[in-house]
Amino acid sequence: MAWERITELGTQVNVASGNLSPEKTTTFYNPKMCKNRMLILCALTAVVRERGREKVEKRIQKRMRCLDAFGATGITGLQWQLHHHDDVEVTVSDINPESVRNMRRNCILNNLLAEDNLSDGKRLEQSNEMMKEEREDVDRLHRGGTGVVVIRINESMNKEVAETHCEKVKDQSDDGKNEKISNVATSSETPFSDNDSSRNDGTVTLVCCDANLLMRQRFFDFIFLDPYGCATPFMDSAFSNISNNGILAITSTDTASLYGKCPQVTLRNYGGQVAKCEYLKELAGRLVVAAAVRAAARCNKGLEVLLCVALEHFVLVILRVRRGSGQADRSVQEVQHVLHCRVCGQRKFVPSTLTVPNSMYDHLSCTCHKSAPCTAMLLGPVWSGSIFDAGFIDRMAHAGVELRLSKKDLQLLHTLLEEATCSGPKSLQMNASLPETKAHQTTMEAGQKRGRLVDANDLSNTHDKRRRCDENQGQPAFYFSLPQHSIKNMDKPRIKTFIECLRMAGHRASRTHFDPEGVRTNAALANFKAVLQDASTPTMK
């Protein structure tokens, strides 16, 4: 069997070549989920910085207990340990014993100790002799099978460093053996040397166990759920023992059900319904949050949504857990249906009530139902609250700079931050664009606001009454697709130009990562179309 050595964000792992799916290999690695792991690392970095300030104030010495519940190769947990070894206690689990053995080899590859709970939970005493034997084992695996050594370096090292690393391996392989070496290199960080046996960045706990069982047995402050498919079977266990103010990150890869291609599976797994519409990706993210809210409420816990991301291959939500039945009740009240007009695209959240309304169409401002019957759909129930925390995403963006991420990754974080703030007119944007350091200083001086830290967006509330009203209304829900509302015989404006037109008209507007042609705004559909009409130009024949 040929093995590939992959480097991502400064972390090396060995995986079997041709790892197409978890069913076909025990060392499954998905390169398409690189952005997902990047976002998780930035989120953990933001939380570590946040906890660091609390440690200074409260003189707390306890490290964060972090769990990667579906380790596979262990690359996510190893990234956490390498970047935050003084602040975290990392546990990586997998139900497959062979995956755990490979994770142990990957720990040694990155000069980490492995506390192996594979059988009796006893700590492995890794002496120098044992470390040497394990390194030889890793070397044999790396050179075994077909004799092909493949080094793939993913957006984590610059090209010069990567070529030097490949030449080093090539010199080792030319010693009496005819082996092929291929490399793919793009990135900005130096890999860890295999020969640096003196380096030790900490200990990673490896557990061969069912994720549900592990989460019910131990307490954690940060949990990452990334199963192959739907994550709802693991939500109850995740909320059972997670700490107050703990972070739960959920990645769902069952996009067929989330995007409405299998409606019966959507209803079975998430207890809601979705349909193809212009804001489908955001609807999918809110559906996952709604399922998490119901699971948390059964454990008398409420949720705050810090981030919701839906890219091509996955949906990621990052949640902060608040303990208490009152918090749970408030979160459950935010789970509502969406009334969607299939004719004009108008949408409105409909709260659950005991009484039957005279007409559901009264919630919509359009009159499409008067000209044709059954023009609206009742979607959800989904989360109706905010899906972004601007202060948290701001800290993630600063973490991305510290981690020296690629320009594309930094641009994604910038887009998320812009979407979270969703700025208004020019006079309001100046208040919203306070430097992060000054904002955090003001936050610490302001102290607590209703039990949570005041984020950067709330700082301008004391300076601008109009901004305070906008913040009380919350972030604009959903977005409009510009091509879908384009006017016949008119050329639509550029996205950037149109956003400025909306802001000049007194509305909040921004790009959205959900759709490159989408605009998030608090403008009503009629106002949106009116501004689009003015900003469009006649088509030249």
Classification by helices and strands = alpha/beta
What is the number of E strands?
22
Shape, please?
A: globular
Q: Largest sheet, if any? A: 8 strands, mixed
Give the distance, in angstroms, between the N- and C-terminal Cα atoms.
61 Å
Percent in helix: 25-40%
- Overall pLDDT confidence: 80
Number of structurally distinct domains: 3
Based on CA atoms alone, the radius of gyration comes out at 25 Å
Poorly predicted tracts of residues: 118-131, 144-200, 427-472
Biggest β-sheet: strands ordered side by side in the sheet: 5-8-4-3-9-10-12-11
Helix count equals 18
Beta-strand percentage range: 15-25%
GO cellular component, one term: nucleolus
Subcellular location: Nucleus, Nucleolus
EC number: 2.1.1.216
Catalytic activity: guanosine(26) in tRNA + 2 S-adenosyl-L-methionine = N(2)-dimethylguanosine(26) in tRNA + 2 S-adenosyl-L-homocysteine + 2 H(+)
Describe the protein in words.
The protein has 3 domains: 3-206, no CATH class; 229-383, Vaccinia Virus protein VP39 (Rossmann fold, 3-Layer(aba) Sandwich), CATH 3.40.50.150; 479-541, N2,N2-dimethylguanosine tRNA methyltransferase, C-terminal domain (Phenylalanyl-tRNA Synthetase, Chain B, domain 1, 2-Layer Sandwich). Helix content is 38%, strand content 23%. It contains 18 helices and 22 strands. Helix 1 (34-58) packs parallel to helix 2, helix 6 packs parallel to helix 7 (235-241) and helix 12 (390-402) runs antiparallel to helix 13 (407-421). Residues 162-198 are annotated as: Disordered. Keywords: Isopeptide bond, Metal-binding, Methyltransferase, Nucleus, Phosphoprotein, RNA-binding, S-adenosyl-L-methionine, Transferase, tRNA processing, tRNA-binding, Ubl conjugation, Zinc, Zinc-finger. It catalyses: guanosine(26) in tRNA + 2 S-adenosyl-L-methionine = N(2)-dimethylguanosine(26) in tRNA + 2 S-adenosyl-L-homocysteine + 2 H(+). It is found in: Nucleus, Nucleolus.
